[in-house]
Amino acid sequence: MVYIRAKKVKSDQYLYLVKSVWNSEKNTSKQEIVKYLGKASEVVKDDLPKEYRNDPKILSVLASHNPKDIKKREEATKKSKQQLYKKLTEGNIEECVKIYEEYIKIFNSSDFFDRILKQVMYKIGEDWASGKISIATEHVASNIAQTLVKIIMDKVSVTKNKKKILLCVPVGEEHHLGCDVLETYLSIKGFKVYNIGTSIPTESILEFIGNNKPDIVFVSITLDDNLTAGQRLVKKIKNEYEKTPILIGGYALQSEQIPKFEGKIIKDVGLEEIPKIIRTA
Q1: How far out from the chain centre does Cα 223 lie?
Q2: Helical H runs in the chain?
Q3: pTM, full prediction
Q4: Do 192 and 233 reside in the same domain of the chain?
Q5: Are 54 and 118 contained in the same domain?
Q6: pLDDT tens digits for 47-95?
Q7: 57-78 burial, b if ≥16 CB within 10 A, otherwise e?
Q8: 155, 180, 195 — which closes off a domain?
Q9: pLDDT value at position 60?
Q10: Residue 182's domain spans which residues?
């Protein structure tokens, strides 16, 4: 059974999607977190994993926390996604920036990355794979999205944090928008970020780790075809720098069947959760 659990921190409520798992040895059930959803007043239907978005009991609980505001936010999110898809595929960076600026009047930058940009880029990738848009259009949209992330980075204020994060991809992975988004968000949160978001030889990554000694290494994998290369990269990092925590995430890690990695897999979590994961890694 899957349901929403609320946890109160100071004056705010935070929601978690949890499930009951039966332990046959102890003859009892325990709760496991399926996904952290966020601040109750800001959670919308799209924050739920796809398989639970039409569950009437879950939606009822979600609506009970802030029914009027949730409807308004869902409408704003849907409209922004449609607009951003159109402007990205048209290559219109000025309008993309305006969409971002309008959206954060209601939400914040992490909401924009999680609920708008990430979802739109997933759809653009799917539309290219199914032949709905051309490879040229996909490239234009990806390039504009990367420029948008850089513009956002220039607009936000940055605080200081001692932890150093290395973002990298395995050999053959040419998609680095995920790394760019992470760089922006983690920089906003005050982390020192090294972004090697392009495909380079594994030996170069290992040398960089040795020279700069990051506290965490984050490996981003977008395409399923690069999962094996990702496994090899993670294994080599672990062999050489055993005490350095490794996080693995990206679109390729969202599927049901994921190969084993010698690190912690970050699956289906919002950006707001990542600093917490880093602190406990």
Answers
A1: 15
A2: 56-65, 67-90, 93-103, 109-111, 118-129, 135-155, 177-188, 202-212, 227-240, 274-280
A3: 0.61
A4: yes
A5: no
A6: 888 888 888 778 777 777 665 566 677 788 889 999 999 999 999 999 9
A7: ebbebbeebbeeebeebeebbe
A8: 155
A9: 73
A10: 164-280
